[in-house]
Amino acid sequence: MISLKDILYKVTINKVIGSTGIYVRNVEFNSKKTAMNDVFVAVKGSSVDGHDFIEMAVKQGALAVVCERIPQKRKDRITYIQTDDTSKALAIMSSNFYGVPSENLKLIGVTGTNGKTTVASLLYALFKKAGYKVGLLSTVKILVNDMVYDATHTTPDPLTINRYLREMNDEGIEYCFMEVSSHGIHQKRTEGLNFAGGIFTNLSHDHLDYHTTFAEYRDVKKKFFDQLPANAFALTNSDDKNGAIMLQNTKAKKYGYALKTYADYKAQILENQFSGLLLKINDSEVWTRLIGNFNAYNILAIYAAADLLGLEKVEILQLISELKSVSGRFQYMISEDKITAIVDYAHTPDALKNVLETINSIRTKNEQLITVVGCGGDRDKTKRPKMAHIASALSTKAIFTSDNPRTEVPGDIITDMEKGVEPINYKKTLSIIDRGQAIKTACQLAQPGDIILIAGKGHETYQEVNGKRTDFDDFRIVEDYLKQLQG
């Protein structure tokens, strides 16, 4: 049990009915999970308002309620606390409940449209190789040193974040690298966390179903840097015009990294092959097994962050040369027939363009480049024609298929995509609703030496149709089909 007064430290309170001197068992924002002696926080979500479930939470045993509107019907001996923003209050209370765990390690947040998972995951791997105890909060998984947990959101809810950070404290972890999504920032999930640094990768078309405009999407990302403390660092991609915007109001120490413009950390691509990249970072050369221009930015961000966190430059370069690609991020295999299959998470127009341009810059042009791509249902519809335009323009053959249709009709999603194909590219496209069949068709069309790109789902091992998830792993499926064709 913990004092409610202690949990409410730093929460802006407008009104209190009852006593804050009581002791509570837990903090909850889900009325179904609320139990005896809990404090229930009524959060307004995009589809459900927690204020509608205050009475249920009290019936379940809540001793206290934090809300933006104090209900007219109140129960005796229940403490009601009014605040302007319960999402922010939940985040601060979660941090207090778990003993402000972010202050006991160096927490680095990574935000941007593309590259978050790669940068956060590779920083985790690099620091672990350097001998540190490390944590990771990412889209792919949550890691507490060697313990692996499944991730459900890019940025989890505040209680989940702080619970894992507390576990990291208990395990003596020194560094934690965390993906910070625009949804997470907007929904105040990162409030109350003490970040030692922030990294901005890039900004391009994504999540406009949620943020409505690109400017709003950009400004939400910017809030993360606005909130960094003076003793933190803010590291941004200077080649992205939005990098400078991220730094405008931050109190943190400002640094930039770039391939094209002047920056504190500068890199040059000396070689770009399917086997990896040879980079010159500042005045030193390093070979990495990662591939493509976009990964040159990721490696440079990792180098800069590790340097800012105090690792020796020579050690950083050595460790970078040992890093392997992240699951579902330009993950590739070569069949016995010399067909190269690449699986990548590219699910935005910019990410898909980057991957296809990378492949085209390496290949000889004597082989086919067959791209299998879809778009998610119940998400930003405006990017669908753009994705199809890019896939058909930059591939020898483009196969449009299902991604995670969710509650939408898969054929309707593909129809939206097809609108982006220019007439000159019509003959280069196929539409196959079943994703497994689309991948099989790509394998059947491929000849020795050809390249297959399967884009959009990357590390995901499921497909979501009509709200149900079934097992589906792009990499395993393409690997199996290529083996069958060889047999």
Largest sheet: 11 strands, mixed
- Assign the CATH topology of the largest domain: UDP-N-acetylmuramoyl-L-alanine:D-glutamate ligase
Could you give me the name of the CATH homologous superfamily of the largest domain?
Answer: Mur-like, catalytic domain
- Radius of gyration, Cα only, in angstroms? 24 Å
Note the total helix count.
16
Q: What proportion of the residues is helical, as a percent range? A: 25-40%
| CATH class division of the largest domain | Alpha Beta
Structural class computed from helices and strand pairing: alpha/beta
Strand line-up in the sheet with most strands = 11-10-9-12-8-13-14-15-16-17-18
Number of strands: 26
Describe the structure.
The structure is a single chain. With 487 residues, the chain is of the alpha/beta class. It has 3 domains: 2-97, 3-Layer(aba) Sandwich (Udp-n-acetylmuramoylalanyl-d-glutamate--2,6- Diaminopimelate Ligase, Chain: A, domain 1), CATH 3.40.1390; 101-322, Mur-like, catalytic domain (UDP-N-acetylmuramoyl-L-alanine:D-glutamate ligase); 331-486, Alpha-Beta Complex (Protein-Tyrosine Phosphatase, Chain A). It has an 11-stranded mixed beta sheet, with helices on both faces. The protein has a 6-stranded mixed beta sheet with strand order 19-20-24-21-22-23, sandwiched between helices. The chain has a 5-stranded mixed beta sheet with strand order 2-7-6-5-4, with helices on both faces. The chain is globular, with a radius of gyration of 24 Å. The model has no long low-confidence stretch (mean pLDDT 94).
